[in-house]
Structure formats: C-alpha cells, structure tokens
Amino acid sequence: MSTSRKTLAIVLAAGQGTRMRSEKPKVLHQIGHLSMLGHVLKALSDASVDKTAVVIGHNADLVRTDIAANAPDVDVFEQTERLGTAHAVLAARKAIEAFDGDHILVLYGDTPLVTADTLQAISDGLEDGSDVVVTGFHTDEPGKYGRFIMDGERLMAIREAKDATESELAITFCNGGLKGFTREHCLSILDRIDRNNAQGEYYLTDAVEIANEIGLSVSAVPISETEVLGVNDRAQLARAADLFQQRRRMDAMVSGVTLEAPETVFFAYDTQLAIDVTVEPNVVFGPGVSVGSGSQIRAFSHLEGTRVETGAVIGPYARLRPGTVVHNGAKIGNFVETKKTTVERGAKINHLSYVGDARVGEAANIGAGTITCNYDGVSKYQTNIRAGAFIGSNSALVAPVTIGEGAFVGSGSVITDDVPDHALALGRGRQVVKQRWASAFRAKRKN
Ligand code: UD1
Ligand code: MG
Questions:
Q1: In 3D, which of 17, 91, 96, 97 has the Cα closest to residue 55?
Q2: Of 33, 58, 351, 422, catalytic
Q3: Does residue 247 sit in the same domain as residue 222?
Q4: Half-sphere exposure of 108 (CA within 13 A, CB side)
C-alpha cells in the first residue's frame, strides 16, 4: 500500500454457502488452485496491508485449519451467530481495538477477484479525507445488490434490495461490498448500527447513512463489477474462475508470452511464464509451474509442480508431474510422463515414456517406450541416467539402477543391474532364426 498509513483488513468469511451444495465451506472452494479466501488474502498481501483478521463462522474448523496452514500471520475471529455483515465485522472488535494504525478495510471472503489496485483506491479515498469509503459499480442488472442513494456526488445511504422502494430498485449504481473506515470513527459508526430491516440483520451498509447523520464524510469509489463478483453457487464459481483465467491470459500476453489460443490455456494462481514463452492450444498449468524464456509448451500438455528452464520444448501431449525440472534446451515429447525427475541440458525424452524418480543426464537420449520401474508396490527407487547415455527403445530400467556415462542400453532390454560408463548392456532374449521354417509350417497346415 503506497501510503504512510497503517492498514488493518477484516475479511468476512462466515457464510455457510448452502447454495454451493457442498461438504466444504464456501470460501475454501478454489479458483486456479487457490481457495477464494486465499485469493483475497493474496490481494491483501500484494497490497502490503499491515494486519489481517478473518471472521469465520461457528464450527468452521476447516477454514481455521486452512488459514493456520497458509496464512499463519492472520488472526482468526469467530462469529458465533450469523446476524449480518456489521455484526460480523464486530466479531473482530478486539482486532480493531488493538490496532494502532489509521485505516480499516472490510472485504468479503467470497469475492475472490478483488485486486490490490482497488484496495489502494479505497486507501487513497481515506487519505484524501473521507471517513468512510465504499466501492460501487454500475450495472444493467442490479438484482439483489444494495443500491447507492446519491445526492449529487455524495453517497447518502445504501439501500438493500429487500428494503428498497420501487424507485430505489431502479437505481443502477450498486454496492460492491468492499469498504474502508478510518480507525478513529470505525467503532462509533458500527456500534450505532441496528437491525431494523427486512432481514432483521445488522447491515454494514447502514454505516453510510449513520456516518452522514453524525457529520462524517462518505465517498464512493467506482470499480469494475468483476472485482466484486460474489460467489454463492457453483455457476458463479465458474463465472469467477472464467474471469480469473481471462485476467491471467491477458497478464501473460502483456508481459511477453505468446498464447496461440488464449481461451484454451488454463493458469494456476502462481503460474510464472517468462518472456518469449510460447504456449500452444489446450494447455493446463496446475500449481507450482514456472517456464523460462523462449521455451515452448506445445498443445495438449499438462504441467504441475514443474520448473522448465529456457529454450526447452515440452509436448505436444506431455504430462509433467510434481518435482519435474527441465533444464535448458531439453526436449520432452508426446505421451511422455515425468515425476520427480530432473532432465538435464539438452537431454531428450521424445516419445511414449514414463520417467519417475530419476535423473537424466546432459544430452542423454531416452528412446521411445522407456519405462523407469520405480515402484515395487511398497517403496519408490531412483534411476540415474548419466550424461550422454543412450537408452534403446522399449527398455525397462528397474530401479534402483544407474546407467553410466555414455553407456548404451539395447532396445527391448530389462535392466536390473548398474551399467558401467561407456558399456553396452543387453537384457533381452537372444534372437533365434530358423531358415524356411515359415514355408514349412504353412505347407504342413494345408495338408
Ligand atoms: C452484501 C451487501 C450488498 C452488496 C453485496 C455485494 C450488506 C448488508 N449487503 O449483500 O449491499 O451489494 O454484498 O456482494 O452488507 N457475512 C458474515 N456474517 C454475516 C453475514 C455475512 O460473515 O452475519 C459475510 C458473508 O459470508 C459474505 C459477506 O459477509 O462473505 C456478504 O454477506 P452476504 O449475506 O452475501 O451479503 P449480500 O446479500 O451479498
Ligand atoms: Mg453475497
């Protein structure tokens, strides 16, 4: 946050999310392999807020565990009864009281597309002298959103749809939910909110009217509707995921990545692609992938937990599983699966192979149909293929095993013992040829 002011963020995440029809709490549903709550916390950390508190529901142990594992600096508060958004903020009263800074932001855990820029805009509004800053957006379909009651440029009140009159319902400037308060006035406003409304809830939105009544200044910051897209069911989750993907594709292209068919490439929240990476159609990035400059990810490949260095070629139809590292200029071709494997510079695994728990040395060549037999049903074992080794097609390397530098493995071998440097290993039946056997056989069958 480019402000000298200290900021506390309170994230409301006490929704049960019944419309998700899920065993899992709503805010733990994922977009790009990160929970919705994780996305909000990431925006807060991108904006460098000083302190974050999350308000969770009663018995939301899964949410508590998730926060402890992924964001241990975040304080967690429990809202024991779900009595409305203002009530939820006050569940974190102790965090507000203990906070010695100036700005307080309130966000929703089910609004995953919020950006650090928007948090900055709220902060700027507070810095410019507003006591309450509210984000709003213009929409042709105001539906269930709270409506902004404006008096010229001044925001006078927010009317929840359920409490609005016919003419108020026609308003198209709506409440985005995210708000900012000055620390000085936050609690005195929140403590004045009552529950005289259609839903019998303590509405955080009433903060606007109250602030106006007691002579404080309120401003509205217009933001894009996508940023405040709230997720209440699986269709909205899919919509949010789609918007997230569109954003990531655009970011990638703007930063120098070629996407041949952007709408068919799927990113994880942490995918990192360097400049001049080319991604062909229908590629999926799971979590933990980085690709170095000039590398090519060809069509229909699936990568997760993988680091690809520069100038490498992956796919088409490659599956790189966690723990794969592909060094500069190496090639992994079609129908190749790797796992916990380092492929050193210039090595090639071009066709139809499984290489797991292995190291493939510099410029080694792995023939079509090579399998590292890394598992005996109980434990996993390592295969070490040294630099310049040549593995003939359709070989099974039974781990633990080492293939020496520059060594050859004959096609169709089953290799169970280490192969010395520069040796040839053959592990297959010797070929037998019986002259004229076939014609004799056919002649016999005809009789
Ligand atoms: C809220 C706003 C509405 C705005 C809309 C934007 C209020 C009263 N209404 O409506 O003006 O247009 O968001 O998406 O603020 N929560 C709790 N505890 C509670 C109640 C809610 O933690 O007791 C959390 C929910 O989990 C959710 C957020 O607060 O993350 C918003 O609550 P929700 O009930 O979804 O409010 P909306 O009806 O969407
Ligand atoms: Mg909502």
A1: 91
A2: 351
A3: no
A4: 22
Give yes or no for a contact between 260 and 282, defined as CB atoms under 8 angstroms apart.
no
Helix (H) or strand (E) holding 120: helix 116-127
How many angstroms separate the alpha carbon of residue 12 from the centre of ligand 1? 8
H/E stretch holding 339 reads: strand 331-343
Pocket of ligand 1 (CB under 6 A): 12-15, 55, 79, 82-85, 87-88, 108-110, 145-146, 158, 160, 174-175, 177, 203-205, 228, 230
Tokens of 204: 């955080």
Contacts (Cβ under 8 Å, ≥6 apart) of 84: 195, 199, 201, 202, 203, 204
Q: Which residue's alpha carbon is nearest to atom 28 within ligand 1?
A: 108
Give the pair of three-digit tokens for residue 439.
């014609």
Which residues form the domain of 122? 7-228
The ligand minimizing its distance to the Cα of 204 is: 1
Residue ending a domain, choose from 185, 201, 228: 228
Residues 45-73: tens digit of each pLDDT: 999 999 999 999 988 999 999 999 999 99
- Residue 277 located in a structural domain: yes
Angstrom distance (rounded) from CA 195 to CA 442: 95
* Tokens representing residue 316 in the block: 């088409």
* Residue 320 belongs to a domain: yes
Do 48 and 154 lie in one domain? The reply is yes
**Inter-residue contact 362 to 344 (CB < 8 Å):** yes
C-alpha 71 – ligand 2 centre gap (Å): 23
Mark whether 185 is an active-site residue: no
246 alpha carbon – ligand 1 mean position (Å): 26
Q: Could you report the per-residue pLDDT of 72-126, keeping only the tens digit for each? A: 999 999 999 999 999 999 999 999 999 999 999 999 999 999 999 999 999 999 9
- The token pair that represents 46 in the structure block: 């991108």
Which pair of tokens denotes residue 423?
Answer: 């040796």
Closest atom, ligand 1, to C-alpha of 202: 8
What is the CB-side half-sphere exposure of residue 320 using CA atoms within 13 A? 34
Residues 224 and 238 occupy one common structural domain: no
- CATH number of the domain encompassing residue 26: 3.90.550.10
Please indicate, yes or no, whether the overall pTM of this predicted structure exceeds 0.90: yes
Quick one: 221 and 318 in the same domain? no
